[in-house]
Write a structure and sequence with these properties.
The complex is a heterodimer of chains A (303) and B (319). Chain A is mainly α and 303 residues long. In chain A, 73% of the residues lie in helices and 1% in strands. In chain A, helix 1 packs antiparallel against helix 8, helix 2 runs antiparallel to helix 3 and helix 3 packs antiparallel against helix 4. The longest helix of chain B is centred in the N-terminal third of the chain and has 32 residues. Chain B is globular. Classes of the chains: A mainly alpha (303), B mainly alpha (319). At the A-B interface, helix 3, helix 4, helix 9 and helix 11 of A face helix 4, helix 10 and helix 12 of B.
């Protein structure tokens, strides 16, 4: 038996996990399922692409690749700027749309608004960049054998490490810092948090920035390993929701574990059933979780 | 063919399509407008109706399952029942949970149905789709004016009947319970109304209407393919209901005419003003425009053009 699908699944699962963390944070703090989260992923990838191109044309030496990797300092720098910009985009969306609705309607109306925003943002990308796929790099990567018949590229190893670092950093932030404690308090009860003197609006802004930045990281990873196209985030939306519900909505480690499970299950389906059925895996997992344990693996309360 | 008959033929073609969208919009109005259930998988339920009806009625073909050759009416009923049954199954799984879970699951239904009709080639014809679907008044297709008007009469008549039945239904005790549950579930439960049963019924009924809309569309055009049923369809139906006025059946139909009219007009404009290679990009702008319109309506005019009437009981109105 070939275990290659495990490696592919973990890489895909890391990207899904990073996106799902954003979904789960938005859900637990703002209390709605954000259908526009996939578009944060696509916009992050395109923003990074444009900035990396600009940096490369201003300082060509920065565009050279690091050793065995297909990317160089230009892309790393661009990804950091892209993460900030995507966080900004999430803030703008909140300011012009979600914030006003939160104040006056039921949460399901906010979900609908996010669906409308998702269509508009995606179509705008299609208008700006056309639906033709683009790539960060045209270099071919040679996959190295690492045992058990598994081969993996240098990029993929770097991305797995990056995911681990980002998730660990977020976990430390939520556990040990003042803003992390405030975020957890708001997710428990916004009203009580406000009474206790927590600036809920500030917590909401930080949540959007974190969710947007992680979405951008996920989009850049997807762009490096696969390709960049306007539908990339939308096609990832169902796996994101499946992962965050599977992990237990509101749980950051759960979202990552859920992402890995969805990623490995999808990669397994490609090998054992057929690549054309990959997209159905998330739906099946979602149905199974909703039937057996709607609170998910690490979910706390009954929601 | 003279100009005027061309205009009549095109006009009736446009009106029939608007009415078909209107049927799906009436279905969404039962789910969202009356009951507050959020369905993001409308395209999937429309596709189920279209494919089931097409498979039941088409002659034998190598390209897909079939050869049943049943009468068209049975196909439409079959499409309705299938879409309604899937809705009931989805509702049964998710309606006891938080409302977001229904939204996410219906989204998954649309993705999965599209995948199924695309990949289960031996059953659905895959990306080649299904052709030779029997059309109403097919023998008159050579005479476009008569053909168009008869189809308009058929679909228009059906919509009038549906409208009257649904208007009756929202004024019935059943409709008032739906509204009561949407507004205050605990109060309704305390009066002995089983909220999740009523929600399930409303969701299945709405899904069945979406299936009917898909079935009629398949037979009106005569050909279906998986890419007819992408998320843009879901989005259009939502825009129709929200702009027209959610909770109001008349609003649902008027919204269908407005959005379908804008959609068709902008399609004509793109076709005539843009070079062929730019048309796909320009078409993306239409979706941006509808997305902005939908969001702006939710923000600034949540009641749409025709808001929901606050009292539906004729007993109260007569007082």
């Amino acid at each position: 038996m070939n275990f290659q699908f495990l490696a592919n699944g973990m890489v895909a699962g890391a990207m899904i996990g990073l996106g799902a963390i954003g979904v789960t944070l938005t859900y637990s703090i703002l209390r709605f399922s954000n259908f526009a989260h996939g578009e944060l992923i696509s916009w992050g990838a395109y923003a990074t692409l444009v900035i990396a191109g600009l940096i490369g044309s201003l300082a060509p030496s920065l565009a050279l690749s690091f050793g065995p990797f297909s990317f160089g300092p230009a892309l790393v720098l661009a990804a950091v700027i892209g993460m900030a910009l995507t966080g900004g985009l999430a803030l703008i969306l909140d300011r012009i749309l979600f914030k006003k609705l939160r104040a006056k309607t039921a949460s399901i109306t906010v979900v609908m608004a996010s669906f409308g925003a998702s269509m508009a943002l995606r179509a705008l990308l299609e208008f700006l960049f056309t639906s033709r796929p683009v790539y960060f790099s045209r270099d071919l990567q040679i996959a190295m054998p690492i045992g058990f018949g598994i081969r993996i590229t240098a990029d993929q190893i770097a991305l797995l490490f990056l995911t681990a670092i980002l998730v660990l950093a977020l976990h430390l932030l939520l556990t040990y810092t003042q803003i992390g404690r405030a975020m957890r308090a708001v997710s428990e009860s916004p009203t009580l948090a406000r009474v206790a003197g927590i600036d809920v609006d500030h917590v909401i802004r930080i949540t959007w920035i974190l969710g947007g930045a992680l979405a951008c990281a996920s989009g850049v990873m997807l762009g490096l390993v696969v390709q960049i196209r306007p539908f990339m985030g939308f096609d990832l939306l169902l796996p994101l929701f499946a992962a965050s519900i599977l992990g237990g909505i509101g749980s950051v480690p759960g979202a990552l574990v859920g992402g890995l499970i969805v990623g490995i299950a999808e990669a397994g389906a490609v090998v054992f059933i057929g690549a054309e059925w990959r997209a159905a895996v998330s739906f099946l997992l979602l149905i199974v979780v909703l039937l057996l344990k709607p609170t998910g693996l690490f979910g706390s309360q009954s929601r | 063919m003279s100009d005027i008959s061309g205009l009549i033929a095109y006009g009736s073609f446009f009106l029939v399509l608007a009415l078909i969208n209107g049927i799906a919009c009436l279905g969404l109005n039962i789910q969202w407008g009356q009951t507050g259930l959020f369905n993001v998988g409308i395209a999937g339920f429309i596709a189920i109706g279209a494919y089931v009806s097409a498979l039941l009625t088409t002659p034998l073909s190598d390209g897909h399952l079939g050869g049943f050759g049943l009468p068209m009416a049975l196909g439409w009923i079959g499409g309705m029942v299938a879409a309604g049954a899937v809705s009931a199954g989805i509702g049964w799984m998710t309606l006891r949970l938080r409302s977001d879970y229904l939204a996410i699951t219906t989204f998954g239904v649309a993705v999965t149905v599209h995948l199924l009709v695309l990949n289960a080639q031996s059953i659905t014809g895959g990306s080649f789709g299904i052709g030779f679907i029997p059309r109403p008044f097919e023998s008159l297709a050579e005479r476009p004016v008569l053909f168009g008007l008869l189809n308009l009469l058929l679909v228009g008549g059906l919509v009038v009947v549906l409208y009257l039945v649904l208007e009756r239904l929202i004024r019935s005790p059943w409709g008032r319970v739906l509204k009561a549950i949407r507004e205050d579930e605990r109060a309704a439960s305390s009066l002995g109304k089983h909220a999740s049963h009523y929600r399930l019924q409303a969701f299945a009924l709405g899904g069945a209407l979406m299936g009917l809309s898909g079935a009629i569309h398949a037979h009106f055009i005569g050909f279906i393919a998986p890419d007819n049923y992408l998320s843009a369809v879901t989005f259009q139906i939502w825009a129709m209901l929200i702009v027209g006025g959610s909770g109001n059946n008349l609003g649902a139909l008027v919204g269908a005419f407005i959005i379908w009219g804008l959609w068709s007009l902008s399609g004509l404009a793109i076709g005539s003003f843009f070079a062929a290679e730019d048309q796909a990009r320009a078409a993306a702008l239409r979706i941006v425009a509808i997305g902005v319109m939908l969001s702006a309506t939710i923000l600034y005019r949540p009641r749409g053009l025709f808001g929901e009437r606050t009292t539906v009981s004729r007993h109260i109105q007569n007082v």
